[in-house]
Known about the structure:
Layout: E1 3-4, H1 14-31, E2 35-44, E3 47-55, H2 63-80, E4 87-92, H3 103-108, E5 113-122, E6 125-136, E7 139-144, E8 149-153, E9 157-162
Parallel strand pairs: 3-4
Antiparallel strand pairs: 1-2, 2-3, 5-6, 5-9, 6-7, 7-8
Helix pairs in contact: 1-2
Amino acid sequence: xxxxxxxxxxxxxxxxxxxxxxxxxxxxxxxxxxxxxxxxxxxxxxxxxxxxxxxxxxxxxxxxxxxxxxxxxxxxxxxxxxxxxxxxxxxxxxxxxxxxxxxxxxxxxxxxxxxxxxxxxxxxxxxxxxxxxxxxxxxxxxxxxxxxxxxxxxxxxxxxxxxxxx
Length: 166
């Protein structure tokens, strides 16, 4: 199991590293009409792994998109973030069980099935699976498979992702 990488020389820890990575890659992704879905930094076998999950609204992400962005972002990180030193970059699509993090994500997938876990129970329940009905003002409404319509604040979610029915 990969371990989260917590400190880098000259950084204020993992959050500083992630913030700088996001700032560094955001313009390149915007130019390619792609969005950053998620990012992970891990240490595995003494080497840093930077995993970048990208998506785009029109047509989704293809293998060629990942390969092209891997080369572009790798070159960019080598140039702008030499403190990364020995690292491996992995660029991937978010997959069919894509994470949902911000209001824009939830709005994009209205009508789709999602799985949401909250930090503190809502009416005795922490896990919800159902259809996303709406999202506005930081509040998501889900038609839970238990037969209830539940409103959940995005800020109260520990984890949310699409739950495709296969």
